[in-house]
Amino acid sequence: MFSRLRSDIQCILDRDPAARSKWEVLTCYPGLHALVLHRLAHRVWKADFRWLGRFISQFSRWLTGIEIHPGAKIGDHVFIDHGMGIVVGETAEIGDGCTIYQGVTLGGTSLTKGAKRHPTLGRNVVVGAGAKVLGGFVVGDNAAIGSNAVVTKPVPPGATAIGIPARIIQAEDQARREEAAAKMGFSAYGVTANDDPLSQAMRGLIDNASLQEHQIALIWQAIEKLSTLRRGEQCVPEDAAVKETFDSDKLTQLVGK
Fold it and tell me: What confidence tens digit (pLDDT) does each residue in 135-185 have?
């Protein structure tokens, strides 16, 4: 028991730069308190003292602002940062080394009793602030859920899920991820160097449209010059796009840099 508590304290010291001492973590971190009380509630729940398990869980909720059902399974070295407003459902499973920020919901979409209704997080998953992971699917090892994302389908290992509804970004540069992981230990708030794929697609379309308008303008300018040199008069239509008017920079700012 005490060795596990020491391990929990150390993982907080490793991942939270605001943590200054073991005593501060032990006395001032509600995420740690919620985990300790959950282990007691879970043990009582497994012993079939269901009301007592729920009562301990409710007391923990009142004390910490973190609601974890006593039936949920939580691994070792889990870090709940800030924690206020976190809700973890009955059949949820959280793997070793996961990091969960405030406002996260590991919820269910089914009303069937006894069924696997809540998500399973693999090892070293980061769930950003305000994210909602809903359903009985698996989030793979080393995956990241972006802040305020709404995830309703499985997330492959090492991938990132962002947006509403969440879109999956596959890891494109494993070497870069490993280098970043070595420096930071984890990706805070589920934020990575990758960007929203929808924004990337929009920026690609904007850049392509801008390039096409530029090419069309060059063609009309060449036609205008040739017609002037050969006939001494212009045969370019009045509505020809001789000058560029497409403001790609402004549109790019609208979809995000």
Answer: 999 999 999 999 999 999 999 998 889 888 888 877 654 445 545 555 544
Residues 6+ apart with CB under 8 A from 149: 128, 131, 132, 161, 162, 163, 164, 166, 190
Tokens of 111: 């009303």
Q: How far apart are CA 57 and CA 116, in angstroms?
A: 20
This model's pTM is above 0.85? no
d(CA 195, CA 257) in angstroms, rounded, equals 9
The sign of the dihedral angle between the CA atoms of 105, 106, 109, 111 is negative
Q: Which two tokens stand for residue 164?
A: 């509403």
Edge-to-edge strand list for the sheet holding 67-68: 67-68, 87-88, 105-107, 132-134, 150-151
Q: How many angstroms separate the CA atoms of 214 and 88, rounded?
A: 53
**8 A C-beta contact, residue 42 and residue 72:** yes
Identity of residue 150? V
Q: What is the DSSP string of 111-170?
A: --TTS--S-EE-TT-EE-TT-EEESS-EEPTT-EE-TT-EE-S-B-TT-EEETTTTEEE-
In angstroms, the CA 207 to CA 215 distance is: 12
